[in-house]
Amino acid sequence: MAPRRSSAPASNAANTAAEAADGAGAGGRAGDSRSADPLMVMSVDKAFRVLHAFDHTRPTMSLTQVAAAVGMDKSAAQRFTYTLERLGYLYKDPVTKRFELTIRTLDLAHHYLRSNALLERAMPYLMHLSKTTEETINLTVLDRTEIVFVSRFMSRHVLNTDVIVGTRMPAYCTAPGIAILSRLPAAEAAGLVDRMDLQAYTPHTTWRREDLLAKIAGAAVRGYATAFEEYYHGDLSVAAAIRGPGGVPLGAINIAVSRARFTPEEMEGRFAPLVVAAAGSVSQR
């Protein structure tokens, strides 16, 4: 056997070439801002795209389906799925050859929930609201144009069991989203609204741009926002934003109740002061 020679430069070149090939197979374009970023490791980007391709509509996929969902060729998809399987983030059924996420994908979420300063500060107030109102209490944060649920205390008068920690909703038709937007500079809030896919989810959805901006301005004056059956039928919600240094919104606390038990007026009058007080207390911490 011939002696093995050091080939680090060749390996680096090969890796670079492989990444470039993967980028082309994944629909990489010269105008793609991520591809043009010299610090962006495109292989990492594509690995996360593979993981994000799995959801409730695609809980399992074949290799061909993974390649199609992510927009890469089958050879690249095979490398990424194999690597993610070896790392423990994907499971491949030995019979069907279909892939699915593993429990290990929860690790990042667990670390976020255990280390997030906002959640740590808000938790005592969320628990207090849950015990005193016996209604559903949520903590949400804004991620681009959506809100994400990071903590949720369910009421025995359960409304939507499909909403769990990690659930995303459009910010413009939710009380927490409007509450957070109302604490942003008006121009910044308007810019976010312009990036949203505005549509009516129910007959009660406020979705036209001018109406939304007026609703955001009204919430800024009141100090809280409401959403009555704007995303889910029968759902009444009131929320107030948690603010950090300089008044920057960090998230929102909301209380959600059923329309079958409260009118919108009753709900707002009873619970708006509570979420405002709770969000104010967390902000002061």
TrEMBL record:
Give a yes or no for keyword Kinase in this entry.
no
Keywords, in A-Z order: DNA-binding, Transcription, Transcription regulation
InterPro entries assigned: GAF-like_dom_sf (IPR029016), HTH_MetabolicPath_Reg (IPR050707), Tscrpt_reg_IclR_C (IPR014757), Tscrpt_reg_IclR_N (IPR005471), WH-like_DNA-bd_sf (IPR036388), WH_DNA-bd_sf (IPR036390)
Molecular function, one GO term: DNA binding
IclR-ED domain residues are: 104-285
Q: Can you tell which superkingdom this protein's organism belongs to? A: Bacteria
For the region Disordered, what residue ranges are annotated?
1-34
Any Pfam family the entry gives:
IclR_C
Q: Which residues form the HTH iclR-type domain?
A: 41-103
Ranges of Low complexity composition bias in the record: 1-23
Q: Which SUPFAM superfamilies match?
A: GAF domain-like, Winged helix' DNA-binding domain
Q: What is this protein called?
A: DNA-binding IclR family transcriptional regulator
Q: Which organism is it from?
A: Azospirillum picis
